[in-house]
Fold this protein.
Amino acid sequence: MRDLKLAWRNLWRNSRRSLITLASIFFGVILSALMTSIQYGSYDSMINNVVKFYSGYAQVFSEAYDENKTINNTFELSDSLEETILNCKEITRTTPRLEYFALASSENKTKGAIIIGIDTEKEDQVTEISKWVNSGEYLSGDDKGVLLSINLANYLRLQIGDTLVLYGQGYHGVTAAGLYPVKGILKFPSPELNNQMIYMNIQTAQELFGAENLATSMIVMVEDHTDLSEAMVYLHKNIQSPLMVKSWDELQPELVQMIEGDRAGGIVMKLVLYMVVGFGIFGTIIMMLAERSRELGVTIAVGMQKRQLAWIVFLETILTGFIGALAGIIGSIPVISYFISNPVKLSGDAAQTMIKMGMEPYMYFSRDLHVFYTQGLIVFFLSVIIGFYTIYKVYRVRVNQALRA
């Protein structure tokens, strides 16, 4: 305790020098926390875009549908299935879908489209699809109309109130054909979704494809992706053959690979940042030792053992690292909180790239706790490692040379 008090007093004998060291650690923690927050915020944004626009956090479907995604491999909807899914406390919502392909036509224009039959109320709770209605209105519970994605509507030259012709093959080869009024135009941030999506009430879709009370999947949502692992354990235990369940990462392996690749690149970038921070701290420590060389020599000359002196100087470095890292953690909280509430909107080529990837053109930030404390711990341990250099230098002090410094 006496050595600690002495180290604390020594730290503030030259407050200017100590503040320079603290500032290098402080800003190093904030910069690394910002970089990590942006990185994990982008991952959360990617995941949310996938699960809320389309896939959900998990899907329940038939084993046959997993092998061959045809309307013939649907399953029958039942209240018992929905109750089984919602009995898991981590699962917040579920909604059925009937998905298949058909030709969409208007006058002399025809294009292949994805038809998605939805429970309009539950689907809006899961994917908030109504907020993407660019013109017209969202579907009501028994509405016989359709919602078209904007690029598809433009290609077919359809507007609100016009009639869409759908033609294709339904359940077990029946002819699927019908005329449907356009109730709304959807504009997603993803070009892929804008090019081919048609939404209709699930009962209307079942009538179109001759698939009464059938669905291709049940979409499962949790409050946050961190709750998904426990929900999947429950679902794997309670969803029995011929049905099965897959999580979003199993349904979207390309996205998982993209995140893993970006995470690896982020590690390299943070290593470079940590090197810059480390050399900044190291530089201030070297400056401190150079300024104090005479002081160290005098202290040894009057009888203090090098072992005790090295320990006190090492404690000074640890205290500096701890205070700087703690201040950096505290300082990063309001900075990152501001950017969480006010995400940075991208423009130009960066925004176009994000849109093409199916993401909103914003730079999002994460509030995960490890974003804050992990960076502080890493920078603190960097300062501890550098502190061993001070021990080495104290043991290397030559009293006769130090007294003449």
